[in-house]
Design brief:
With 283 residues, the protein is an alpha+beta fold. It has twelve helices and six strands. The relative contact order is 0.13.
């Protein structure tokens, strides 16, 4: 995630200046273009001494960070915007002034305006703007730094880790932000295999054992819930076996199938047929 690099298979590179319709807007590409067209020039003009120390990108919660945004998801907490991440020292020196300059940037870009902001994406939980690096990761994960122990890793679910490591870094000449972000992808080997073991156990318990038992018992609601547990376990297993450093993490439940479909098309994906098998089971 150094200057100009994109982390992972993200849509958005090579986006043209032409805008079609709001329904066709790629949120990550819009954020990148807004940064390059409006954000970077603002920093070059007003904060030249800090330009080599500020990271920019779009990481965190939100479908646009996963590349899954569409017309339906753009009714709240979206629009032209990006994150500017500062070290603690730089944030103390210029954080307030830089936030004021960020707030003064155009509210509409390429015909796209800002959608209403929900309370969970406002204040301390804001998704864009000027953010101190440690505060940013603490707000998402509860930790300001890289995870060091197995206990810490096991305290976090995969959706949390997906939010901390998804999206894209547009620029990070200093490298401080990318160093912390990258550390969340380096899951301890023993933790990864412990989670793989748990997922295999749930697949056997919920899918192979309890689905037929609940159907035999005449309890279709319990059978449906068992299928849900099976689906979550298999989706997690595919990501864990492929590896967080390569595949990232499984996002929260709404995006399980979108994430699985995308991962199954990638070279080196483990169990690429699992998504079709799960679709058939659910049908």
């Amino acid at each position: 995630g150094r200057d100009g690099e994109d982390d992972g298979d993200r849509a958005g590179a090579g986006q043209t200046e032409r805008q079609t319709s709001v329904s066709s807007v790629d949120g990550l590409a819009l954020a990148r273009a807004f940064w390059e067209t409006v954000g970077r020039p603002m920093l070059e003009e007003r904060y030249p001494a800090y330009l080599g120390r500020i990271a920019a990108g779009l990481v965190g919660h939100g479908s646009e960070c996963y590349g899954f945004d569409d017309a339906i998801s753009r009714d709240h907490d979206t629009g032209p915007g990006f994150c500017l991440w500062l070290t603690r020292e730089d944030y103390a020196e210029i954080g307030a002034a830089l936030q004021a300059d960020y707030d003064a940037l155009p509210a509409t870009f390429r015909g796209v305006g800002r959608a209403p902001t929900t309370p969970r994406a406002d204040g301390a939980g804001r998704r864009v703007g000027v953010l101190e690096i440690g505060d940013f990761f603490e707000q998402i994960t509860g930790y300001r730094r890289a995870l060091g122990t197995a206990h810490e890793w096991l305290m976090l679910d995969e959706a949390t880790l997906a939010a901390a490591t998804g999206g894209a870094v547009f620029a990070d000449p200093h490298g401080a932000f990318s160093a912390v972000r990258g550390s969340f992808t380096r899951m301890l080997r023993d933790v990864r295999w412990a989670l793989v073991s748990r997922r295999l156990g749930m697949i056997a318990q919920a899918g192979q054992y309890n689905v037929p038992r609940m159907l035999d018992r005449g309890d279709p609601e319990a059978a449906w819930l068992s299928v849900g547990e099976l689906t979550r376990a298999v989706a997690s297993l595919v990501f864990l076996l492929t590896g967080p450093s390569s595949a990232g993490y499984l996002p929260y439940y709404k995006w399980h199938f979108a994430a699985l479909r995308r991962l199954s098309r990638r070279m080196g994906s483990s169990l690429p047929g699992a998504v079709d098998d799960l679709s058939e089971i659910l049908r």
